[in-house]
Amino acid sequence: MDTTDTFQTHRPRLFALAYRLLGSRSDAEDVVQDAWLRWQGADIASIRDPEGWLVTATTRLGLDRLRARRNAPIAYVGPWLPEPLEIALDPDPLHDPAQRHARADEVSLAFLALLEQLGPDERAAFLLKEVFDYDYPEIAPLLDHSQANCRQLVHRARQRLQAGKPRFQVSAGQHRDLLTRFMDASQRGDQAAILSLLHANAEMVSDGGGRVTAAIRPLLGAERIAQLYWAIARRNGAHPARIGAVNGEPAILRFQGDQLHSVTLVSVDGDRIARVLSVLNPEKLSALVTARDAGASSW
Question: To which CATH superfamily is domain 3-76+117-164 assigned?
Fold first, then answer.
């Protein structure tokens, strides 16, 4: 196997790691490209473990980007949400709903948004241990930390992530049902119906990136969220919508003319929606589907 074939064999794993580290498809692609350039310039004959070398390079390049992003002056307008990796009109027919639900957990926008709470090293250590099944003796040299320190990083990450997760899990079917009912109610601006679906202290986060109209701060409380959708419907501003999938998770796809306008996902806690995440920034919706393809209809 030549050097190009070796890299291409590991490329999917490298991209998966970079995307989870950065929450951005475009940044992940850049990191993998940088890893490829380093691979081309390396003394390949002296590398005993190509996969380990490539994972190390990708992780360190990703960490450099994470640190730079955190240290850079704040220029982003409004809340930042992860960039969807895949937007589909229909769920993957090769997996049943429960399998899709489990698979989507590790790349859901809600999970990636929670990862933003972690420091760069915490995030890398947690992903390598919990998602990519690396052991501490492998993680420690990769991150230039002791094994004991890596254990602490993962432990702290678990605690912080657990605090942000729903207390009561629901089935894939229940999740989709709540999402569909929420789409129906929000399209009509039915405040009573929306309130019946949301936790009283629900949160809504919208990412427009300053490029389209979106709330520049999270909306807190079911009343405020319901009022927003009521106001949009009253102005006849609701966009045609349908249920699709984002990163394998059920999502509301809304369209403006022929183009995808936004994607909305929800986090469910028990029998109600606890969080609503909407990505409207057109730069993050480049995996386009069209209204014609989707057969979108107003609800």
Answer: PhyR, sigma-like (SL) domain (1.20.140.160)
